[in-house]
Amino acid sequence: MGRLALIFPGQGAQYPGMGHKMHEAFPPAREIFDQATLGLGRDVRAMCWQTDQNTLSDTVNAQPGILAVSAACLAPLMAAGLRPVAMAGLSLGEYTALVAAGSIDLAVAMRLVDLRGRLMQAAVPKGEGAMAAVIGLERAQVLAACATGSVHGVVEPANFNAPDQVVISGHTAAVAAAGDAAKAAGARRVIPLTVSAPFHCSLLRTVEGQFAAALADAEVRRPQIPVVANVTARIVEEPAEIRDALRAQISSAVLWEDSVRYLAEEFGVDTFVEVGPGKVLGRFANRICPEALTLSVEDPDSLSATLAELESRGMLA
User: Fold this and answer.
1) What is the pLDDT of residues 253-265, one digit of tens each?
2) Is the pLDDT of residue 238 over 80?
3) I need a labelling partner for 118 at 20 to 30 A (CA). Which of 186, 228, 310, 315 fits?
């Protein structure tokens, strides 16, 4: 019998209509949308289904929308007897992991990510910040490219996603210069990302204090299932360290590759189930742990396929 971890997507996975089929097929998913709407104070259904891609991609919509949809996808999965040994989420997805682990109530998490999105989006004026994915270089080469670009401003690694992909973030001119340096160093591609702010870099440190105050007022419990934090790639257990990890995550790099390796090496995870919109994290996991099985749940068809595969492997309670 294998050992399974749940992984939850972050911003960028959103698309109009996400979660609608799960909502229609499963009463527990509908209950999640009710709870999410109540917690957010806005109609999550309308936000996810009655809008265009550009509107949904705004940070203030994408973050709570992905959280709600991921939680709705999780509800019927857990009801089927899934028993993960640990979990993690990419950036925003860490909140979903904490909700799934019983550490933070969904309504509380919705309010936190709503504030988080607003603070992150307002931290840097539009046009002054940028992000880009660097494909095909090792970490040391990306760091060297950032050092070259830093003469034009702040540019730092924001996401260590996979062995061949690092996202960089910072001032627009500095990110462009670092991208040029990465290409000169042999990067296969440098892909500018469509984002509303330069996430996970020191330019966002100015909003940490405001967010820390909100975290201090939020009820946070010890997780019932281990959760790996982005900023350390290690489990977080005590409420104080969970709050600190969530605060620091705003301006710190996401150690996703390290987190997946930690799940595999320390928990013996050989099966990753991505829960929520998209399949990006599964592709990352395949590149980090090529021997691992990756599955996904974002609609009734993928739920059925995942449950059938897990049942065949004796991984359902």
Assistant:
1) 999 999 999 999 9
2) yes
3) 228
When pLDDT is cut at 50, 70 and 90, the band that residue 195 belongs to is confident
- Longest CA span, the chain: 56
Task: Tell me the domains of the chain and their CATH numbers.
Answer: 4-123+204-312 (3.40.366.10), 129-195 (3.30.70.250)
Cα–Cα nearest to 167, from 203, 200, 121: 200
pLDDT score, position 2? 80
The vertex-209 CA angle with 206 and 211, nearest 5°, equals 105
Are the beta carbons of 21 and 72 closer than 8 angstroms? Answer: no
Euclidean distance between CA atoms 211 and 113, whole angstroms: 10
Distance CA 217, CA 197 (A): 26
For residues 258 and 231, give the distance between their C-alpha atoms in angstroms, rounded to a whole number: 10
Which residues, in sequence order, are CB contacts of 179 under 8 Å at separation 6+? 132, 134, 145, 149, 168, 190, 192
Nearest to 92 by CA among 125, 52, 65, 131: 65
| Residues classed as catalytic | 91, 200
Would you say how long the chain is, in residues? 317
Residue 121 C-beta-side C-alpha neighbours within 13 Å: 17
